[in-house]
Amino acid sequence: MSEACQPVDVAVGVLIDAAGRFLLTSRPAGKVYAGYWEFPGGKLEAGESVEDALRRELQEELGITIGAVHPWKVEMYDYPHALVRLHFCKVYDWQGEFEMREAQRMAWQTLPVEVTPVLPGTVPVLRWFAEERGFEGPTHRG
Ligand SMILES: Nc1nc2c([nH]c(=O)n2[C@H]2C[C@H](O)[C@@H](COP(=O)(O)OP(=O)(O)OP(=O)(O)O)O2)c(=O)[nH]1
User: Fold this and answer.
1) Which residue in 98, 94, 95, 34 sits closest to 62, CA to CA?
2) What is the architecture of the domain spanning 2-133?
3) Which of 19, 42, 46, 132 to pair with 7, CA 20 to 30 A apart?
4) How far apart are the CA of 43 and the centre of ligand 1, in A?
């Protein structure tokens, strides 16, 4: 029971390209919410900072080396499987070719997001983008 109350810290990368599009990736088979679209990232390992974890995860999952990490917002989300604390960071530069090392899919998106379904814990980010960009209307389908 006590484990369920302890939040799991997750580093999440919001990659933004020169055209203002952001990168979503689908969750691989075998994970909870497989097939749902999210921003790439993963859990912090013991002793890791958010930035360290993000660099490691994006290298492992996407094969890219990221440049500066800009912390954006922190959001808690209470799933049936876990309470997560999501550390969303903006990233504007990276090196290397994208490789989907976990057989995920990737999609550069703008508002409204076309891919579906979107992970519940990802939806707030789309609202923040909408506020920043003066976008009105639904941010995603479904
Ligand atoms: N990467 C990512 N995770 C998110 C987002 N929104 C959201 O609620 N989450 C949740 C889903 C999961 O419960 C958790 C991330 O854990 P994960 O299982 O993907 O992390 P991981 O890659 O370290 O996985 P593993 O090594 O334990 O298999 O955060 C998001 O936008 N991106």
Assistant:
1) 98
2) Alpha-Beta Complex (3.90)
3) 132
4) 6
pTM over 0.90: yes
3-state secondary structure of 55: helix
Give 75 Cα–ligand 1 centroid separation in angstroms.
Answer: 13
Residue nearest atom 16 of ligand 1, based on CA coordinates: 42
Residue 99 CB neighbour total at 10 angstroms? 11
The binding-site residues of ligand 1, defined as CB within 6 angstroms of any ligand atom, are: 10, 12, 31, 38-43, 77, 79, 82, 84, 86, 119, 121-122
Q: Is the ipTM of this complex over 0.90?
A: yes
Q: Kindly report, residue by residue over 100-121, the tens digit of the pLDDT.
A: 999 999 999 999 999 999 999 9
How many Å lie between the centroid of ligand 1 and the Cα of residue 110? 22
- Per-residue pLDDT at 134 exceeds 70: yes
Give the residue extent of every domain in the chain. Answer: 2-133
